Amino acid sequence: MNRSSKRHAHSLVELMIVLSLLSSLITVSIGWIHQSMKLSKQMNSRQAHQTNLTRLTRMIRDDARTANDASVDGQTLELPSLQVVYQVDGPVIQRTEQIDASTTRTDVFELQPGSRVIWNDTELPKAITLQIKRSSGTPIPSRLPQTNEPNATNSDTTDRNDLNLRMELNRYARFGVKP
Questions:
Q1: Are 162 and 134 within 8 A, CB to CB?
Q2: Which ranges does the record mark as transmembrane (predicted)?
């Protein structure tokens, strides 16, 4: 009897090793896919927030440059000469413009949760400042070296400025530009 020295099959141990390696690779790759999807969602949220801030900045600058006067009452900015009102309601800024007696235009700007809107009217009647600050709500690890002192802070919980906009009122009229 002449037996061939070639093997035609794999042993059970070899198959178990290959299957365990494949399952480990699949587990790691699922973690990477989940993490990349999470980062993609965060980036889309940030992009939408930046787009809303850009739209808000453009519209409020144009309004302020053509407005003769402005008044701030709490969370409301009113531009009576243009019949435009900016109303803050939580993480939403709503712009309402009275075009004529029966037509009203409303624009809504959604901000990220935790955003605070601050109208600074100390420079009225020449200018007004809009600040949008955001707090993440969770401490962010500080870049400062860690300390073991009981009263030292090892985290940075300060507010982040998303927007700091100073607008001059009636700027177009002062420079002779027609909007």
A1: yes
A2: 12-33
